[in-house]
Amino acid sequence: MKRNIFFIVLAFTLIVIIFLSIRFSSDTTEDLEILTKTKLGTFKVEITSAGELDAKNSVNIEGPLGLRRARIWEVKIEDMVDEGTVVNKGDYVARLDAAELSDRIQNEENDLVQSTSQYTQTKLDTALELRQERDNMINLKYDIEQKRIALEQSKFEPPATIKQAEYELEKAARAYEQAVENYQLKVEKAIAQVTEAYSEMLEDKRWFNFLQSLQDKFNISAPEDGMVIYKRNWRGEKQGVGATVRAWDPVVATLPDLTKMISRTYINEVDINYVNEDQEVEVGLDAFPDKKLTGTVVEVANIGEQRPNTDAKVFQILIEIHESDTTLRPGMTTSNSILAEEIVDVLFIPVECIHSQGDSITYVYRKSGLSYTKQQIKTGITNSDETIILEGLTEGDVLYLSDPPGAEGKNIELLSAN
Question: Could you tell me the pTM of the whole model?
Answer without folding.
Answer: 0.57
